[in-house]
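Hey, I'm writing a tutorial for new members on how sequence and structure tokens pair up, and I'd like a real worked example in the thread rather than a made-up one. If someone can provide the structure for the chain below, I'll link this post from the tutorial.
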Amino acid sequence: QMQLVESGGGLVQPGGSLILSCVATGNTASLYGMGWHRQVPGKEREFLGTITRAGDTMYADAVKGRLLISGDNAKNTIYLQLNKMERDDSAVYYCWGGTNNGQELWGQGTQVTVSS
């Protein structure tokens, strides 16, 4: 069974950069893409971006220009880099994975707080 495990997060200075990683473990043969979402209390989970095994990326307009998602297929790992962090970027960040048979998986989430 496949699982997603995030790492990184914590406290980030305003204007700084956030770097997260997410590794897919278990049977990853059917994995076709991974990505990132975030959620603040009382709001719906927000799509940030995705990357396919082929390296194609898609970003939400809200973070386009600040967000870079990259991947390492050999390690079944993706990375998030969000630059020029603002207080409104404080949220729980979730890793997402999609498989060829329509299954969706989520990581456990990692808290990110932007504060000086």
